[in-house]
Amino acid sequence: MKTLNLGIVAHVDAGKTSLTERLLFAAGVLDEIGSVDAGSAQTDSLALERERGITIRAAVVSFVIDDVTVNLLDTPGHPDFIAEVERVLGVLDGAVLVVSAVEGVQPQTRLLMRTLRRLRVPTLVFVNKIDRGGAQYDGVLRSITGRLTPATVAMGSVSGLGTRGAAVTPYGATDTGFTSRLVDLLAEGDDALLAAFVQNEAAVSCCRLLAELAAQTGRGRVHPVFFGSAITGAGVDALMAGIARLLPAREGDVDGPVSGTVFKVDRGPVGDKIAYVRMFSGSLHVRDRLQVRGHDEKVTGIRVFDRGAVVRRASVLAGQIAQLRGLHGVQIGDVVGLPSPTSTRDVRHFAPPMLETIVVPVRPADRAALHTALARLAEQDPLIALRQDEVRGEISVSLYGEVQKEVLQSTLAAEAGIDVTFSETTTICIERPIRTGAAVETIGADSNPFLATVGLRVEPAPTGTGVQFRLEIELGSMPYAFMRAVEETVHATLRQGLAGWQVTDTAVTLTYSGYWARQSHAHGTFDKSMSSTAGDFRGLTPLVLISALQQAGTRVNEPVHRFALEIPAETYGAVLPALAQLRGVPDPPTAQGTAYLLEGTIPASQVHALQQRLPRLTAAQACWSPLSTITNRSTAVPPPEHGPTPTHWTAVRTCCAYSDESDECRVMELSPDLSRLTHANGRVDAPSAGTAGRATVDPT
Ligand SMILES: Nc1nc2c(ncn2[C@@H]2O[C@H](COP(=O)(O)OP(=O)(O)OP(=O)(O)O)[C@@H](O)[C@H]2O)c(=O)[nH]1
Ligand SMILES: [Mg+2]
Questions:
Q1: Nearest ligand, measured from the Cα of 12
Q2: Which tens digits make up the pLDDT trace of 666-677?
Q3: How many CB atoms lie within 10 A of CB 61?
Q4: Which residue, of 178, 252, 278, 471, is most buried by count of CB atoms within 10 Å of its CB?
Q5: What is the CATH code of the structural domain delimited by 431-552?
């Protein structure tokens, strides 16, 4: 049987979960239809989702249409949970983009459509809520073609629009207007069809047109538009037929090499890890062994989605989605077997979270349990990027917004019994080097506590290039393990720069290296005090790198959101000064009927304040959507207490050096700002002029 992995995506409250419920009912999976409002929808299964009536996590359910098994992935629409959408994008064969017939195309809809088109995910559009007062047909269709994509065609007409009795009549072969619109649309992408049509219009059958529509929809070139209501069920049969006939269900290559992607990680009732994998080729069986993050792990259980249920199976085949148990080290984005062409690891379609908050347990005794609970949540959502600041004893996470924060708070209380509060939310900045800086520490020198020579040069690199590591030494001049140690440590160290933020757009060049080869005593024992190890390079690299970075200097850049904002035209005069006050920079507005569409930029730190003011300024008529995040606006370096404490400096604070004469280990503490080195005996070394921030060790 063929499988179609289908994502349902839309802006918040468009009706994705209600539509999912309706599709399950229409496919005969449910005897009774559940409702989001009553907290009984299948895919909003978390207590918090039912309580709040919003989707927080992507969920999978399955049903069958004709000879196609559809694995449907219901996704959240709130922008705070956009990461959930991002994680499923790479495993989809097709998508239904839901637009509300009342609210129409929203900025979030545009963001989603742009991403689906870029990824060439075959996408149908479903205009929902035709039963609600204020529902539109022509207006919504115009804004879909004008603002989403011109390559669309309506698949039916609507009667009784805006009433409970609204009904959909699908277009057919006898609707000449429909067939000529199809020809216009499809001929652009198919010269043979155009030629046949020019030769003899009547000879081009409706069947041929529909086959061509399926082919071009499958290539992501055109987007059929269906109308209906998830609540009354109007138009849902036509949508079901469209899903089965127009989207590319496939029978995967079961005999091919094993290739799958993990797009979701959960915990079972007894705390066991459950990895959701989409298989692209090959098959996996219970007891198969897999390499997961360098470890050999065994699949102990497989469950697949089957007509609304999750059932045990002995294997999962190409094309299917399954829950795998037994993979203890697995993480979201991991590849099972060979990478697939659409592997999602490290791929960013949307802006990363730009807010950071410190999570504070109400009961201080809960601190350790809080860290464990947050680490579990980070398995499900790695973008929260859990961090522990050893110096201040603080735990912080990255977030998209206030709703995500409230969800985190409720989840910790419900799942771990931990009550938390949050310190003020701050914006996550980045640091970029200002100029070139260089430093070197030579093996055997008094100032160097490690058996390694490392010289590094730090230079600014073009925006968006991240951290690049280069060699200016001969590749064979040092064991590969030592070079890897330097490179890995460079990346780890630059996670926090001089002001405590991630350093990026930086080229780091290894300019000098040196080591002492492995030496043994006459009786054959390895002499650590005379032989360099990778640990020496890991210890020395941060000291040299930070020294070079201090010479280079860094500039802190705050993230700036590109936004789209729809407001009633008459409120423009009130919104503009508020935007300016919050350092927003709008482009000239575009008139859309009685509304204005404003696009522009605003510092991420001001977004929340703007969102709070908008309802009052626009009589709750504003529609806000973040489009992307750019981090190229410079600000003055914030005072140290505003940035996170550089935790890697904590890591290098304790240096361990061996004296030449004995195996005695001398422990020294480096102050967090790297300005002082304290020996275990309490003596303090101040760095000499020009070497501020570098460890200087007196061998006596
Ligand atoms: N009248 C009417 N209401 C609808 C329809 N579809 C959904 N709703 C209502 O719209 C609200 C949101 O529906 P959901 O299905 O939760 O929307 P969603 O897109 O899943 O929302 P998120 O997952 O939170 O983004 C609920 O109150 C639904 O009852 C529809 O076709 N007609
Ligand atoms: Mg939902």
A1: 1
A2: 334 444 444 444
A3: 25
A4: 278
A5: 3.30.230.10
